[in-house]
Design a protein that fits this description.
globular, single chain, 3-stranded antiparallel sheet, alpha+beta, 3 helices
Length: 75
């Protein structure tokens, strides 16, 4: 899960496909189903208090993947 969050954080605002996210956290993404990304994103949302219906952190892009939408707090 932390690997997924780190991958999203490296490219805030960019849409990353499930395949790209799998590739960033697994050594052999061809051996893992892309739906596992959905499960781990759901776990991250639960732990961080994000709501898929009204996200503040991770937005689902239907049939594509996810993107980080959180912005840094102004200093």
């Amino acid at each position: 899960e932390i690997g997924l969050l780190a991958a999203l954080a490296r490219r805030p605002g960019a849409v990353l496909t499930r395949e790209q996210l799998l590739g960033s956290v697994t050594r052999r993404p061809d051996e893992v189903y892309d739906r596992v990304v959905d499960v781990h994103v759901a776990n991250l949302r639960r732990k961080l208090g994000d709501d898929a219906a009204d996200p503040w952190l991770i937005e689902t892009i239907p049939q594509t993947g996810y993107r980080l939408i959180a912005t840094p707090d102004p200093a």
